[in-house]
Amino acid sequence: MDKPHDQLASILADDMTAVNDLIKQRMASENAPRIPEVTAHLVDAGGKRLRPMLTLAAARMCGNTTPYHIHLAATVEFIHTATLLHDDVVDESAQRRGRPTANLLWDNQSSILVGDYLFSRSFQLMVETGSLRVLDILANASATIAEGEVLQLTVAQNLKTTEDTYLKVVRGKTAALFEAACKVGGVISGADEEIVDALAAYGDALGVSFQIADDLLDYGGATVALGKNVGDDFRERKMSLPLIKALSHADDTELEFWKRTIEKGHQEEGDLDHALTLMAKHNVLQETRDDAVFWAKKAKKAIAILPVSDIRQTLMALPDYVVSRAS
Predict the structure, then answer these.
(1) What is the dotted CATH code of the domain comprising 13-302?
(2) What is the pTM assigned to this prediction?
């Protein structure tokens, strides 16, 4: 049976073709050929295009009659791509979607500047919709994403990071764009406020569930499924949810291990295996999975008020699929 995002891609195929055409058109640059080179490397790497599909799905469910859902879906993808380019520089990542990162193939300067260009392009696209409200939603989301990234930076390697702080980071850096992607689809279609709020709540909960599942995959997934290497979060000393939960159970000896590997960054051969052993001992991965399931249920409950349709059914299946990736 097709995965929910494949079903969504099939239902929205014509719209997605228009979005991809618009992305290619707007990532062009006469003066700086490196811009389309760098952008194409990431855009063509076969990401699921989940965020723009959420915008299109929300618009379709709300009976959109404007051409601007295409602009907004492209906007969302540009914002997402810009944040990925910047993230890979910040994280010093070498792999994204199973391919070498742009900063590795070109350099950090190119990744940062092309990311800036895509952000600027996304604002041009938003303005073309003529909707101040849409501009407000996406501008707020862009600021919230940056806030989430900075908060993540300030709590990096801080073993006292709480689950509440983690949730603030995730709601910023990941869920904010999911939420905005869903919300603008409703707004551009002139949907009732109750529907717009339901779409926003769905996006927020789906985004949180998505990020928790991603954290879980990093400690228990396969490299193929991840598009990056298992244990990258451990090597990058990220305060992800499995680690925060492991720390809450740690005795003095375990705490010394986490201080050495995460706080001080003195990692040796076999440390990742030991980290996984400690997580298994405290059932941390199952606890993390339970949290992802909680947010998935929240997402499904949010859109239960929407009229029954193929798209709603697919959106209902999506949160469970997101969690199942990490099973």
Answers:
(1) 1.10.600.10
(2) 0.90
